[in-house]
Fold this protein.
Amino acid sequence: MEKTNHSVQNQKDINYYAAIRKYLQKQYPKMDKTGVSALCREAVFAPGGYAVEIDGTDAPITAVRENLADFIERDNANKNFIPYSLDAEIADLIEKNNCETSSMNEYYRWISATADIVRHTGDGEVTESDASERSEFITMSYDRESEILLCLALYESAGREKNRGKIDMLRFKLARLREMRSIVRNTSGMVNAKSYEEKEKLRLYYDYCANLLSQKADYEPNLNLKLKLNINHSNDEDLEEDFSYLNYLRQVVLYMMRKLEKSSAENQRADNVSEIADTRENDTREQELGYMLSAVRENEGR
């Protein structure tokens, strides 16, 4: 029985987006499928300050969501929505899978790995393994940054105050991860350092990491040293207290969906134009151009 319940819940999760689209179609029966899909996209991902055009009128996205919620409630269909607590559960799972043991152990592993890379950079014998180590760390750092930003958005969606501790921890880790990546990048040109300046800078980078490893997680290194070594990330906009990771994620997804939609439409137009041109080989250039323009207009009207 438990397995069946999980199966039902998974099916509901998968149909979350489709459920919203279905109720929007019921709410706006005169709107075509393309319009409903676009409205669904905006309703799910657009930040609070956005507006969307409905029947020739710009409507605040917040009002669209409120009306949709009221409509669904009246239709007794609100059970199709994923509960907010699931967002936090997903974030917990992502972090657990990537941290391997614990969040703080991962934090110290980043610093230790950076210290090793700096040490290998100046030891006079840079191997292919050393180069691979540097490249893999940079790749990992960007992957983890994306995952952390996603988790921050999920925790925010589940309730910022309820998940305050987890959000603060991830913001702290994100800042340190960026610091470590900047150190790895900054030292890439110091392989087999020979000048005193380069050797001294490598020493300072290594000491910086070693100092972090010897301190508690909440330790904050000297700001002047961070500025001197160009590893200061405390002024990043997305590390500010009032930054909305949820809105940021929505903006990114919305941008990608719009871009994909535009690309798909352009590809469709190109296919249609190509098909028409292939059947008009004997026409004049002016006639071909006319057929192409007609095909484009036809697609734009769909």
User: Anything to note?
Assistant: DSSP finds twelve helices and two strands in the chain. Confidence is low (pLDDT under 50) at residues 1-14, 77-84, 279-302. The CA atoms of residues 84 and 158 lie 5 Å apart. The two ends are 47 Å apart (CA to CA).
